[in-house]
Amino acid sequence: DPTLTLRGVHIYKGWLDGGAQEALRDALREVVRQAPLFSPMTPYGKPMSVRMTSAGKYGWYADRGGYRYVPRHPDGQPWPPIPEDVLAIWRDLVSDRRAPDCCLVNVYREGAKMGMHQDRDEADFGWPVLSVSLGDDALFRVGGTTRGGKTESIWLGSGDVVVMGGDARLIYHGIDRIRPGSSALLKGGGRINLTLRVVD
Ligand code: MD3
Ligand code: FE
Prior knowledge:
By secondary structure, the protein is mainly beta. It has helices at about 20-35, 85-95, and strands at about 5, 10, 50-55, 60-65, 65-70, 100-110, 115, 130-135, 135-140, 150-155, 160-165, 175-180, 190-195.
């Protein structure tokens, strides 16, 4: 059962123990080796402060032409496979009948943030989105299904897993800031967030 539920968002505090976090970190090092991090461009032509890459059938990509899922890294190669440890978290908390198509890897250094947005580039909002936090703590903000309106915030720590399904699937959410130095998991500090999604 979730540790707590905030506006329909289910939060599993400390779902991954230290050893599982280290194994995931090491598997992601291989993903980043095969699919280097890049800074997506916003429609305004300013790069996002979060660096990204993906694993799976599709990766999320943004440039001045907009946001979309694409089958290849910007360097031309297909995205690497989603690590087995990551798929196991999805099977345990979401479904063993369908695997996710995309594992988006977001990397936050000190000062990086993600503005309030909805995740609506997927074909079927019936599938939840699952998020895994690794490394430094992050201040996660959730609102409602329309822009503006009241919001609530919660700190996410390393090993926490969040599942957004049902009415929560289309809520506005973002990351206001990270707390530098709060975790020793990642050499050089910072935070990694994985989001798993069914795309098509
Ligand atoms: C609530 N990432 O990649 S994960 C994203 O920590 C994104 O990097 C943030 O938002 C991060 O799109 C937040 C938590 C999350 C992810 C998807 C959601 C919360 C969500 C979809 C619907 C509602
Ligand atoms: Fe999002």
